[in-house]
Prior knowledge:
This protein is 64% helix and 0% strand. The chain is built from 11 helices and no strands.
Amino acid sequence: MTKAKPTQSTDAPKRQRLTRERIEVEALALIDEEGIDAFSTRNLGKRLGCEAMSIYHYFPSKAHILDALVDRVLGGMPIPDKSLSPAQRLRAFAHSWRAFARPHPRFYQWITLHRGNSATATRFLDEILDCFYDAGLPPEQATRGFLILGYYMTGALLDETSGYARGPSSLAPLPAEVVERDYPRVALIERVATVEHFDEIFERGFAALLREFGLE
């Protein structure tokens, strides 16, 4: 009498199919967790449960993955309705960018220095410029407004995501009680530069920028 062959368990987890979408999602998650310097196709392959060579079937190099992430982020940004005022549209862009940057501080540090010169990124930048032109600003002033907005957003979000409270520290910092006693104005910065004050500080700075160009 022959023994029946054991049936294969159906409880074994199925291996997820490799796709461009899954590679991009896991690449961003890996950068969020370990930083851009630790990002490699080898580490990404381990996360995906495959060899790095399998990833090259979809992306020829690490640089191509990073390009795809830039386009993924910028291409996914909502474009405000043209019926809104230029100031409302700029504020919507700013809020969307801030909503992306805060949960992705490590990738934000990298993308904020990217030239934004792919087709997707160029269209995105042109939509922001369009707000300044629609406000009736001449080309040079509209361009300056765009650049100043970039300076403000970069500085504000770097500070919120990885700035004052998380930045490098001296090996011999002044004791808090000494700073409080001798430099009370500096001590106040640390008390104000906290998460609960970020929204107020951001909105007041952004409103001042809009007023500078007569948009509010």
